[in-house]
């Protein structure tokens, strides 16, 4: 029997041998808000509800290997010109990214992390709306890969515009 076991459990391999790693360290609710400013009168309003969804993501580097990603969803429902409700959820997670190239880190933070957080946001938003006395609402899936691709396209476009502006000749006065 090998002497690399402790109480029957294998000793973990040395960290030096470990390659790139992605880990979910913590998932938590950072902020939650629900408002029904017109209640209870809004419950008797007739008309088709108008829903507006606002999605935002921010990333903060906590240390060399840890990043906080915050996915914010704000859902505003209006009936006519009256606000029925506003639900806002900031769902956050701390993610470990070790041994990865900066481009790979950017991709994971822009796609994988929000994909992990989204089901939590979806559940909380649905529960808030229903607890507020409104019909159940199921937030539809979001393609974070497509959103990330659009962000990259905008970054490249902005970089091209900045480069073109810096190449303009400066006139003599």
Structural summary, described in words:
The chain is α+β, with helices and mostly antiparallel strands. The chain has a domain of 118 residues: SecB-like (Bacterial Protein-export protein SecB). Strand 4 and strand 5 form a beta hairpin. Keywords: Chaperone, Cytoplasm, Protein transport, Translocation, Transport. Pfam families: SecB. Homotetramer, a dimer of dimers. One homotetramer interacts with 1 SecA dimer.
- The CATH architecture classification of the domain at 19-136 is Roll
- First-residue to last-residue Cα separation: 86 Å
Question: In sequence order, what are the helices and strands, one letter per element?
Answer: EEEEEEHH
pLDDT < 50 runs, ≥5 residues? 1-16
Mean pLDDT: 87
Radius of gyration: 23 Å
**Which assembly state applies to the chains in this document?**
single chain
Number of helices: 2
Report the strand count: 6
Strand order of the largest sheet: 3-6-5-4
The CATH superfamily of the domain at 19-136 turns out to be: SecB-like
Instruction: Give the class from helix and strand content and strand pairing.
Output: alpha+beta
The fraction of residues assigned to DSSP E strands is 35-45%
The helix fraction, in percent, is: 25-40%
CATH fold description of the domain at 19-136: Bacterial Protein-export protein SecB
């Amino acid at each position: 029997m090998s002497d690399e076991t402790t109480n029957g459990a294998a000793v973990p391999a040395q960290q030096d041998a470990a390659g790139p790693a992605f880990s979910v360290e913590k998932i938590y609710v950072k902020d939650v808000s629900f408002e029904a400013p017109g209640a209870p009168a809004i419950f008797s309003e007739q008309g088709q509800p108008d829903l507006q969804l606002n999605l935002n993501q921010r990333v903060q580097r906590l240390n060399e290997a840890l990043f906080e990603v915050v996915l914010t969803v704000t859902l505003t429902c209006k009936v006519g010109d009256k606000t029925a409700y506003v639900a806002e959820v900031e769902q956050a997670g701390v993610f470990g990214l070790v041994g990865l190239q900066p481009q790979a880190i950017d991709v994971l933070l822009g796609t994988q992390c929000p994909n992990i957080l989204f089901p939590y946001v979806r559940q909380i938003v649905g529960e808030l709306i229903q607890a507020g006395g409104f019909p159940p609402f199921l937030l539809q899936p979001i393609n974070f890969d497509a959103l990330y691709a659009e962000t990259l396209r905008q970054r490249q476009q902005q970089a091209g515009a900045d480069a073109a502006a810096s190449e303009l000749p400066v006139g003599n006065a």
